[in-house]
Amino acid sequence: MDSLGLYVLAAAVLFGVGVYGLIVAEHLMRKLFAINIMGNAIFILLVAASGPIQGSPDPVPQALVLTGIVIAVSATAFALALMVRLYQETGQATLSSRDDGDDG
Amino acid sequence: MTASALALIVFLPLLAACATVAFPGRWVGLIVRTGLLPLPLLMLVPTAAVLDQNVVHLALAGHASPLGIEWRLDSLSLLMLWLNVGITVLISLHAGFTFRPDSDRGRRFWPLWLILFASMNALVLSADLFNLYVTLELVTLAAIGLIAVESKPAALRAGMRYLLLALMASLLYLLGVGLIYGQAGTLDLYLIAEQIEPGWLPVTALTLMIVGLLIKSAVFPLHAWLPAAHGNAPGPVSAILSAMVVKVSIYMIWRLWFWGAAGWDLTTAANLMGLLGAAAIVYGSLAALVQDRLKMIVAYSTVAQLGYLMLLFPLASALAFQAASYHLLSHGLAKAAMFLAAANILNSVGTDRLQRLAGVDQRLPLDVFALALGGVSILGLPPSGGFVAKWLFLEAAWQQQAWGWLILVAGGGLLAAAYLFRVLGVICLHPRKRLDKRPRRENPDLASVAALILAVGAIAAGFFSAPVLDLVSAGLPPGMTP
Fold first, then answer.
1. Inter-chain contact B156–A38, Cβ cutoff 8 Å?
2. What is residue B136's predicted lDDT score, i.e. its pLDDT?
3. CA dihedral A36, A38, A42, A47 (to 10 degrees)
4. Ramachandran assignment for B218, one of left (phi > 0), alpha (psi -120 to 50 degrees), beta (any other)
5. What does the H/E/C string look like for B439-462?
6. Which of B324, B280, B278, B289 is nearest to B416 (CA)?
7. B187-198: per-residue pLDDT in tens?
């Protein structure tokens, strides 16, 4: 198997792990881990697909992945803050209970 | 001139957002006004430019793509910009009271509100797939922050659910962007059509992106997060969520479909998208019919109304494009008005459970009037903006002898009438059941006036449709002729 195939396979496996975790996990922290793993799978795929097949690698996908990582970090930070606040208000860090509140 | 005006339209609210965080003192009110109020005036410059040249291109700070950021303004972007500016400024009148800038609540609310506003403006101006991703991510994060701004458990849970789905959706979109770049070698939305031929890889990429965007726009059957999120958010936030936030991702699907994949044969997929829209209209309306909270009814109504925007895909004619664009505008105005009115009712009565609202029309006549006017436009009675949109949809379906879609549009109006008249019936038709308790809290007059202006706007849209429709038909997607 060539190296590109290896990266694609790794990305696919990671993505699968992420989807599985997102569906199966109850705790929000685990769900966030799962989403981050899915994100990393996509970043691997983008970097792998950008070469170097011949000559120097294409800088654009690298720039995309860098921006993607920045966004993933800030989104994760935000999600963690939201999770902590949810835990403080309700005493649980899962989404198992009913979703609509009483009055608006 | 145009360049600086467009830059200000994005960066003025963004700078104001930063300033409200940096100086959280008594100047917040002034900063917020500086960030919002000049925008309608600034909009006149790009409007004149689009009327003059049809399409305006702009490379920010002189850096061209692929590594710089390019903006592009055409009729559809201009319509979205005006809608966003108008609706945000009007809702801000209302939010000025629920979230006073000098209060603690206000200091949490206004930075997010301004960021949301700025990022939606940037989104409709973006011309490449990756900037669209970044701005959409900003829109989502700001929107979820706003949902959770009051830290109510129900809103926090709804926001969290929305966030998990939205993050997954953005990853699907990003994967699609990567695949498209690999094929086309460009990220420019308006160049990829020339660069790639439909094949299994581009089709997979397009599918991934569109599924991601469908999750973000809560199109049936991916709508499950919307009613809880829109129904539990604070009033002004619900209004902007339903009026604009779900629309910008549908706007992106339109761009991908009609510009990015111009010339592809997508008939089967288009019919599938139309069927999703049909299911949304029927399911959303029926679900709205059985809700017992006013804000949840309005939220499910959004699920239903988004379905009409999906009918553009199977109909795909110039008339349908005008219809869908006009539906975007009139639904935005009407739904913002209805959510603001519902927020005023909730604030005054202390609950929005329908059976406790009997007789509320005597205490809050202006708000019930705004709710009813918004409802008139939603169900498409003449002479409202909703009527113009529905009429154009009917005409487009008639022209193509697409009887199924014709029946759907007509029947959708009846379903909307059912859930809206149920609300108005409960509120107005109980002569003996007066509300005897004093209001829990008084609403300031301006809060009701803001709702009323939006509602009157939704009705007035029925009278002044000609210039907007002309504008829309000046910027039809490639391959559509009037």
1. no
2. 96
3. 50
4. left
5. CCCCCCHHHHHHHHHHHHHHHHCC
6. B289
7. 889 888 888 888
- Type and span of the H or E element at A91: none
Asked if A17 is an interface residue toward chain B (Cβ–Cβ < 8 A), one would say no
Place of tokens 């467009």: B6
Q: For residue A49, give the nearest of A36, A60, A33 by alpha carbon.
A: A60
Cα–Cα–Cα angle for A88, A93, A99, nearest 5°? 95
> Please, how many CA atoms are within 13 Å of residue B186, restricted to the half-sphere of its CB?
15
Q: Which residue has the tokens 């017992």?
A: B292
Topology of domain A3-90, per CATH?
Helix Hairpins (1.10.287)
Tokens 């291109």 correspond to what residue?
B57
Among B126, B144, B146, B168, which would you mutate to test the A interface (most chain A Cβ atoms within 10 Å of its Cβ)? B168
DSSP code for A55: S
With CA atoms as reference, report the closest residue to B332 among B226, B452, B247.
B247
Estimate to the nearest angstrom the gap between the alpha carbon of B347 and the chain centroid.
Answer: 24
CB contact under 8 A, A68 and B174: yes
A2: contact with B, CB 8 A cutoff: no
Give the burial string for B191-229 (b: 16+ CB within 10 Å, else e). bbbeebeeeeebeebbebbbebbbbbbbbbebbbbbbbb
Cβ–Cβ contact B350 with A under 8 A: yes
* pLDDT confidence band for B24 (50 / 70 / 90): confident
Question: What single letter denotes the amino acid at residue B4?
Answer: S
Query: Does the beta-carbon distance from B171 to A42 stay under 8 Å?
Result: yes
- Rounded Cα distance between B147 and B236, Å, is 10
pLDDT digits (tens, 9 = 90+) for B270-312: 999 999 999 999 999 999 999 999 999 999 999 999 999 999 9
B161 touches chain A (CB under 8 A): yes
pTM of the model: 0.94
Q: Tokens at residue B141, please?
A: 């994060």
Contact B167 A49 (CB under 8 A): no
* B248 neighbors B139 (Cβ within 8 angstroms): yes
